[in-house]
Amino acid sequence: VQLVESGGGFVQPGGSLRLSCAASGFTFSSYIMRWYRQAPGKGRELVASIAATGSIINYATSVKGRFTISRDNGKNTVYLQMNSLKPEDTAVYYCNSQYLNNWGQGIQVTVSS
């Protein structure tokens, strides 16, 4: 089982980034997928989750209206579109699968002027 994140980086406040998480080794289309983040000195926070079919989506209050989670079951990939980024969004972002509670390696997102 492998989850590989990509798309992170440095962006100015108000900017956008799109994270991707490519999954392999399990039946991706059968499981909930989630994005978490961990800021320096803080615990890991659930950012967004999406049901196996994409029919149910939930967001943390802090990102609602700015972030969009989506998935392409044909490509075994889950996405996190992040708009109107703020400095407080700076964190390492992790992809997580409901299957065996697997985690990606994490990817840095830095929002700064």
Kindly summarize this structure in a few lines.
With 113 residues, the protein is mostly beta strands. It has strands at 2-6, 9-11, 17-24, 33-38, 44-50, 57-59, 67-72, 77-82, 91-97, 102-103, 107-111.
State the distance separating the first and last CA atoms: 37 Å
Residue share in helix: under 10%
- Beta-strand proportion: over 45%
Question: In sequence order, what are the helices and strands, one letter per element?
Answer: EEEEEEEEEEE
Mean pLDDT: 97
Q: Low-confidence spans: pLDDT under 50, at least 5 residues?
A: none
Number of helices: 0
3D architecture notes:
With about 110 residues, this protein is mainly beta. It contains no helices and eleven strands. The protein has strands spanning about 1-5, 10, 15-25, 35-40, 45-50, 55-60, 65-70, 75-80, 90-95, 100-105, 105-110. The strands form two sheets. Strands 2, 4, 5, 6, 9, 10 and 11 form a seven-stranded mixed sheet that branches. A hairpin with a 5-residue loop joins β4 and β5. The mean pLDDT is about 95.
Keywords:
single chain; 113 residues; mainly beta; 7-stranded mixed sheet; 4-stranded antiparallel sheet; 11 strands
Can you lay out the helices and strands and say which pair or pack?
Elements: E1 2-6, E2 9-11, E3 17-24, E4 33-38, E5 44-50, E6 57-59, E7 67-72, E8 77-82, E9 91-97, E10 102-103, E11 107-111
Parallel strand pairs: 2-11
Antiparallel strand pairs: 1-3, 3-8, 4-5, 4-9, 5-6, 7-8, 9-10, 9-11
